[in-house]
Every structure is written in structure tokens, then in C-alpha cells.
Amino acid sequence: MTRQYAYSICDMMDRIGPASVQEEFRKAGLIYIGSYFCDLYFLSVPEKVWEAVLEEISGQNKNAVLVVPVPSQRNLDAVKEKVRHLLKSWPELIAELVVNDPAFLLSSGEWGGGRDVWCGRLFSKEIRDPRYPHFRQNDRISGHISEDGTLLGTKVAGYEKEMYSDGRGSVSAAVHVPLSYISMGRHCEIGSIRRTVTEKFRLWDGCSRPCRENWNVYRNGGVTFLKFGRAVYALQKHGEDAGSADRVIYDGIADLVREDI
């Protein structure tokens, strides 16, 4: 198949304006929206921001891919309701779904509206630290997808992996560049910046999305790491050779923090 190009504004949707002038954004046919790592971010994005993002995508004749984070038990129903609302409001524009845990994959037939469903980058739990000599992330998720393209009995269109991955499965593969996801946590210290000491690190509080303006960059073992929201990324050392991937997803966060990395 012809390689597809996508641009992700996940976890930075407020920056759709600056993102849309980037070269990687302009050449992408698919724009990834939503969040990979934070259900609080996903739920706290104002409706006017969702509308502005989707209208921008529509105006540029692109399609959207909705990425659904792994929700906490407390936020499970709210995340499902938000997904249903977005799919109902933008039925033609949102072309595909990305889910990041088995439970959402199994239930996707109930609310996905027949859209293609991809296994997101959080499905793979392997060691991802690029400081290991000759490191390549294992591509185990592809080995669990059956030859008929099903995982846990559910049809999937493809799966996502990081640049440091090797391997090839029976369905389409998408690779993330130029930032590789390394790790994540439920607590977000950046999310507590404006809170008093007694109100910091509460998993049940809402989110004012301070990660839009605040992030940490540090270097260790010859690798540049980025802490953005709940996630830790590594700047890939191997360029942007996506190998045999059917789809390349460029992470817009790299453009946002370009001067720091």
C-alpha cells in the first residue's frame, strides 16, 4: 500500500494554529487528535477547542483520527460519553479510532460506528529505553494479532509502534517520529504547578492543561528526553527512516518544543 503520512496534535490540541503552518502538517492526510496519555486532558479540552480543531482539519481537506486515552475507573463513563459525542457530531470527518487498552478495543464495536480501529502505542509494554547498547524495542504486539487481522477476537486495522521497533505483523503498522514514547505515569507534576501544596497530585481533580506551556528537557547517556504532561519521550537518534511502516505519524510536540530539544 502507499505510505500514509499523519500529524499528531494529541495532548497539544490548543496549538492547532501554529501546528497547521508546519511542513509535516501540510503534507499529512490524517491529523491525530485527542490524547494518548491523559484522560483528564481529554476531558478538559473545551468544546470550542474541539470545534476549532475539527473545523481547521475539515477546511484543509484532511481527515481526523480520534485517539482515546486509557481512562481511570472514575473517568471511564465520561470518556466513553465524550467519544460518542465527538463521533456523533463529526461523523464524516473522524475517519478512524485509536484505542490504547484491551477493554476499549473489545467495546469499540458498540460505539465505533464501523470505523477502522487501531491499537495505539500503549498496547506495547516492552522496555523502550534507548540508552541500552544497540537498543531496538521488541514488536510483540504484532505477534498477538491473528493472520485474519483480529486481536482478542476484534478486527483491527493496524497497530502503532515507536521508531526503535523492529518487526512486521499481519496488519498495517504505523510508526511515530521523531519522538519515541518511553514511559508514563498517572501523576502529573506539571499539572500541579498552580496548585497549593495540599492540593497537588490529586488524580481526581480537573486539569487546566498547563502542559501547553510547561515541559522538562533533560539529557542522559547521550539521549535527549522530554517530559511532556504525563509522558516521557526520547528524541530519536536514528533519523526518520520509518522502514517498512505503512503510516508515519509525526508528533507535533516536537515542533512545539523544537527550540529546547
Key traits:
single chain; 261 residues; alpha/beta; eight-stranded parallel barrel; four-stranded antiparallel beta sheet; 14 strands
Notes on the protein architecture:
The chain is an alpha/beta fold and 261 residues long. Helices cover 23% and strands 26% of the residues. It has 8 helices and 14 strands. The chain has helices at 16-19, 23-27, 39-44, 47-59, 76-89, 102-111, 140-144, 253-256; strands spanning 4-8, 30-34, 63-68, 94-99, 116-119, 150-151, 154-155, 158-162, 172-177, 179-184, 216-220, 223-228, 231-235, 247-251. It has an 8-stranded parallel barrel. The longest helix is centred in the first third of the chain and has 14 residues, at 76-89. The two termini are 34 Å apart. The model has no long low-confidence stretch (mean pLDDT 85).
Number of continuous helical runs: 8
Instruction: Summarize the biggest pleated sheet.
Output: 8 strands, parallel, barrel
Distance between the termini: 34 Å
Report the average pLDDT across residues: 85
Major sheet: arrangement of strands: 1-2-3-4-5-8-9-14
As a percent range, the share of helical residues equals 10-25%
Rg is 17 Å
**Which structural class do you get from the secondary structure elements?**
alpha/beta
The percentage of residues in β strands lies in 25-35%
Shape: globular
Number of strands: 14
Low-confidence stretches: none
Order of SSEs = EHHEHHEHEHEHEEEEEEEEEH
Summarize the structure.
By secondary structure, this protein is an alpha/beta fold.
Helix-strand layout with pairing:
Layout (H helix, E strand, L loop, with lengths): L3 E5 L7 H4 L3 H5 L2 E5 L4 H6 L2 H13 L3 E6 L7 H14 L4 E6 L2 H10 L4 E4 L20 H5 L5 E2 L2 E2 L2 E5 L9 E6 L1 E6 L31 E5 L2 E6 L2 E5 L11 E5 L1 H4 L5
Parallel strand pairs: 1-2, 1-14, 2-3, 3-4, 4-5, 5-8, 8-9, 9-14
Antiparallel strand pairs: 6-7, 10-13, 11-12, 12-13
